[in-house]
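If you are new to this repository, start here. Below is one unmodified record pulled from the training split, so you can see the exact layout before writing a loader.
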Amino acid sequence: MTDNTDFEDSFTSPHGFVDPRQSIMQTVMHMVEDNVLHFKNDESEHGQRLHSGFRALKDNLEKVSAQADLVKREVSLYDFSADVPGNGFRSFTNIVHKAVLCVFDLCKQVCTNRDSIILFRKGHYVREVEAWGQTLASIATLLDYVTDVLMPKCKDGNLLPDKSDSPVELLTVLNTVSQYSFYGRCLGFHYYESLQKTLKFLNISMSAFSEVYYSDGGFIQRTKQSVITGGKYVMDPEQRARRIVDVVQYSSVDFIKAFWSLAETELLTQVPGIVGPSLAFQQAIVVPCEDQQVPKVDGTATVVIQAPHSHLPPSPITCHLLSAHLREGMLGEKDRKGVTVLPPSPYLILHCHGGGFVTQSTKAQEVFLREWAVGVGVPLLSVDYSLAPEAQYPRALEELLIVYSWVLNNSQLLGSSATKIIFTGDSAGGNLVTGLTLKCLELGIRPPDGLFLAYTPFVFQIVPSPARLLAIMDPMLPLGFALRCLKAYAGQPSRNASLATSPVDGITMMLGQQPKMLPSTAEHPEDIPATLEVPASSNTMNQVPSDAQSDTESFVEVTETDVQEAKAGLSKEVTNMSKSPSIISEPGSDTLTTVSLTSKASEIEDFKKSNGKNQSKKENKEERSKRYVTEFLEKYVLDSRTDKQGRSVPILRTGSDESESDETVLFEASNSGTGIGARLGRAKDAVFTGISSGLSSFGLRRRETVPSPTSPSSPQEPSQSKRPSLGKISLGTTHLRRESGCSLLDEFSGVELISDHYISPLTASHELLAKFPPTSIMSVEYDFCLDDCVTMAKLLRKLGVPVTLDVLDRLPHGFLNLSLVSKEAHDGCKLAVTRMRQLLQMDEEVATEFSTTSV
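And here is the target side for that same chain:
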């Protein structure tokens, strides 16, 4: 990762000359001051707003520049190495630098066009200047906390403070920051340009989808509403920002599952096969949910691992095998005529997908898994584990262990001799395969020969690290989404919640408090899956030595009779329960304007059980629909103004005076190559541009006399606006917070998360971590999990484990899923292929000594 925080570089002035003595900040400040003076005597409404907006820019630029300089002095203390600069503190200084560059471009446009009556659109630039003023004000608030609180806590290069009041401390800070600016006009300013339009498209889609998801009515009504709301959010960035913040703050995990599952629709899952590299073999493989016997590495015994059944009855586990070549022994290989069959590969990749433990599948991630299978050239088996909240921790980990055990016994069916096996995973999948590695080491069975982990969380706590703060401006993984995924996977309703259905006799941790040990015996011992050891020289059952087990052992030893009784009991249960799919709720089941805004899931359930029933009796469907429409119109669609007779009349809130070039191009494919991928990308751009142009042809333009949602309230015309200007907000004359009945702080202040070393690998013993295989960790500059990755890499290096760390510039969490639409994301995908080949030591040129590198 390159250091973009050098504020002393020379820069080209708007007049075309370069002054090597003048820094970027000095240039920008000079331009801002010039605009302040220029608009000081402009008595029009927009002129005065530009004057106050540039004043706000000046004040906030000075503040964030001084704060960034303080942080910059110490950022190198937290890096992995001099060759790999990257940590949450450094990311903040880079964000300031990117913001300064964006303000420079804006000031340059104003200075160039402000004297032109035709080219200078005052209304457009008013909103741009006010938006950047608010963005800088929010960054300044975050930097205040970083410099005053976090840096004193993070001593000796430690990015994860040992003691904190999390999550109360973190959420309290974030609750004081206005998030609207990060999801409006300034959305994704710190990412590569190749990604900014795609991220804007995703956020417009989420805004429109949320209204459809939380609406009442049939298919036709929802479809019509989707078209209308989609056009509204294209034209009005401020309205889009308000909607996104509401969705992030108050939507349930069911909405998250439904929205992210759009990537698994039949149409989108066809795209990788059309534009991506071709595969010779791609097939679903169902791994039976039954006991597996795996020999210990030392040959002293055979470990028998019972089939998983925590939270859900035992059910087969679906996996997908992808391979660029057809190999001997593969399932169905003999049925393929006329295809070259290669010998079994000595290598195998076991992959676990991301998705916050609650959504996604192999099909959704095929966009980069194809690249990996072809680039590495070995069979790749991806596991579709059961999803939360139906299948909470540790169900997914149990299924992963069963699949791995089955692979060790049946690798020939995958076209591999399994001489070398590596585990790969991104995000939640990286956490799962890391926990699986710990489990293998504890059980004494064969561990993987390497680990590739992409943007992986290694600490399951809401600690206020600098990188955690970055989630407040993340369009791919917003803070509210991340927290609800953690809660769905490992959340407990209270400290006294029973773990009877969980095979973990582990630790539950109240967020922000020290771990507390639970009793070592479960309430229902028969529910605990078992691991048995069969001595190599005898058929009798032996126990593992006491020192081989931890207090939080998930797989305890029982007698063979106990296992048979457990199986008999389970056979009576329903075994064909489906895995937790991502299902869109029924119409009217929830709405962002009513019950779903409560802060706790228990309150929602209580409402549905009591008030919800009474409501349905008192109010028929037609009346309820009218009420929802009225609330929706008042909240999102209608504004008001005063007519000539002094009456307040409703008008359509239609957006801003944005040029079509600013807001209509939503999605842009990578321009590299001239093949079918490039042709499809151009066709896709044309479709989206056509749709957007069609929407704009309806005449959804705000007249100059109608103020925008961010216009200041004029004393002479009090009814012309409902919201204060962003310029006033930036100057501190008002405080913008949407009034609501709940917040993330209310929802998570009393939440408990299960915490043991399988789910938080950084808490594992150093003796165990020292046994890790060579590990390659990849993270990104503005990632929620960046500090986790840096800290894990440092710890493994300290323990003597061969490790590489890559911190990629200006890419978001989950960038691998965007490799088809961004050259930089695709380059990161190819780097992942290189790291995997290094772990497998496949080529002489890449099998050199494992060293630290960066991009």
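Two things worth knowing about this chain: The two ends are 5 Å apart (CA to CA). The chain has a mean pLDDT of 74.
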